Structure formats: structure tokens, C-alpha cells
Amino acid sequence: MARIGYARVSTLDQDLTVQLAALKAAGCDIIRSEKVSGSSTIGRDELRTVLAFIREGDTLVVTRVDRLARSIGDLQDIVRELRGKGAGLLATEQPIDTSTAAGKAFLDMLGVFAEFETNLRRERQAEGIAKAKAAGVYTRARTVDPEAVRRLAGEGAGASAIARQLGIGRASVYRVLKGAP
Q1: Active-site positions?
Q2: How far is CA 39 from the centre of its chain?
Q3: Strand 96-97 to 88-91 pairing
Q4: Beta bridge pairs of residue 32
Q5: Class at the top of the CATH hierarchy for domain 3-118
Q6: How far is the C-alpha of 71 from the C-alpha of 54, rounded, in Å?
Q7: Counting CB atoms within 10 angstroms of each CB, which of 48, 82, 160, 177 has the fewest?
């Protein structure tokens, strides 16, 4: 009976250190981690590895249920898969332990709230974009015109001047001049 830890953050610049330390303190024999969005289980290779590896009597340990899934459907699918293999789920920072009735109930409630939070965030983002568009502040990122960059460079303009004139970043100018796509 092994304790298998799973840690996840959404972006590359976020840090896994706190989660990894908590999983080690919880007695996890194996810990897998990844930096990928939790809004779907698609593309979460480490989670797939854990779910393929976990055996009867093992426990999947996470710090919080939102590290495992952001939608109630995904959460239920994961718990069903664990249950089908005779494995359990434990969260170190929440009273979730699928070996108890109270833990199962709390898991379901937290899953609903995690999905609700995700939906609220999407609504706020959409409202913000609509408001910015209405105010004329929201614009699509400019696309780089490689021919214009090369033409200006051929005329002797420097990277900063080209970037300023075309409204793009200097890094984009350098990429074009180096022949990168």
C-alpha cells in the first residue's frame, strides 16, 4: 500500500516547492508533478502516469482537490478511476479521504466549488475584455510583417527604430532578422 503524491501548478513560473514538501511530509513514496493547467485532464501526462501506475490499496495524495481537477466532471472521473482500481484519494490541506463517508461528501462539495470558481473567473475575464473593447483599449496583438522588418533593416534602421515604427517588440525584430519563424 503506497502513498503516491501528485502536485500541479498552472504555469511555468509558479513554484511546486510547498506542494512537494507537503506530499513528502504526508509520507508519499512516489511524487509526480507537472506545470500545466488543471482546467482539463488533457495534456496532463504526469496525472495519466499516476493513474496508470496506482494499484489496489494505494492512496493518491494531493495537497488540495483543485490541484487534481478544476471541473466536477474531471474530478468525478478521476475518483471513479481510483475507486475502480481499489485506490483512495487523500488531500493534506482539506478533510478529504475517500475511505470515509464524510471525506467523500466533502470531496463532492469542494469539486462543485472549484468548478464554480473557474466559471466565475471566465465570466469576469469575458466581462473585462468586453469592457476594454468598448473603451477601445483592447486590441489584438500586432502581427509581425517580416518584409517590413527586412526593408527597414536594409535601409539602415536599427532594431529599436524598427520596433518603434512597426509597433512590435525588439525581440520580434531580432527573430525576423535571424530568420526564425
Answers
A1: 10
A2: 7
A3: antiparallel
A4: 6
A5: alpha beta
A6: 22
A7: 160
Three-state secondary structure call for residue 169 = coil
Residues 40 and 72 sit within 8 Å (Cβ to Cβ): no
- Residue type at position 29: D
- Where are the chain's structural domains? 3-118, 135-181
Torsion, Cα of 10, 114, 45, 20 (10° steps): 60
∠ CA 47-48-52, nearest 5°, is: 120
For the domain 135-181, what is the CATH code? 1.10.10.60
Instruction: Tell me the one-letter amino acid at 18.
Output: V
